[in-house]
Amino acid sequence: MTEQSSRYNRRAKQLTEAKFDPRLKTYTHVAILLILTVTIVGIVLIPFWLIFGIAYVNRYFNSLFCELTTRALHFKKGVWFQTERTIPLDKIQDLTFKEGPLLRYFGLSQLKIETAGQSMEGVADMSLTGIIDARKFRETVLDQRDEITDKNTPSVPSSPQKDGEDEMLALLRDIHKTLKNIEKKTG
Fold first, then answer.
1. Contact 104, 119 (CB under 8 A)
2. Three-state SS for 114?
3. What contacts 99, CB < 8 A, 6 or more positions away?
4. Which long-range contacts (CB under 8 A, 24 or more apart) does 149-153 make?
């Protein structure tokens, strides 16, 4: 666990953990097979993918983890190259819900998370594919983000404090009176 994610874990409580649809395994296997089919080098790799691909996809699927806490969204994935991300909720700008033709065919969807301060416009900071009930998870994340940002936004009084203005006016009158007295004594 990274230092940043452990810092958030000490102060945050888990709200929900996303579960991934087992159909994601088939989708991943087919998507990679299609990519290999359309590339010249990939055609040579198809037999290896057909032999070892299922084992790789199963290990990848078992490595997926995503949880929403009171402060952040935590995500882990990877077999050979592991990725662990912690995104503070107050940095999330948008969660885009996406369903392409292949995703729809397998009954899956993708959530693209965009954060404040992204390096490129239109590029997702993180993508989550195959979450069971992704629309509900998206709404839960956005609701928690709104709750966090509402707490951190200072409330501004709708009208100025009348008492404060009266005190300031009285202080200014006293200063004016003192200056007049000084002026009389020196003049």
1. no
2. strand
3. 108, 109, 110
4. 149/89, 149/90, 152/90
Q: What topology does CATH give the domain 3-152?
A: PH-domain like (2.30.29)
pLDDT of residue 59: 93
Lowest mean pLDDT among 41-55, 124-138, 146-160: 146-160
Tell me the Ramachandran region of residue 122: left when phi exceeds 0, alpha when psi lies from -120 to 50, beta otherwise: left
For residue 153, what are the contacts with CB-CB under 8 A and spacing of at least 6? none
Q: Which helix (H) or strand (E) holds 86?
A: strand 83-88
Domain boundary assignment for the chain: 3-152, 160-187
Residue 76 φ then ψ, to 5°: -135, 145
Answer yes or no: are the C-beta atoms of 36 and 54 closer than 8 Å: no
pTM for the model stands at 0.66
For 86, the token pair is 């912690």
Whether the Cβ atoms of residue 65 and residue 6 lie closer than 8 Å to each other? no
CB 125 within 8 A of CB 116: no
Round to whole Å and give the CA distance between 139 and 24: 21
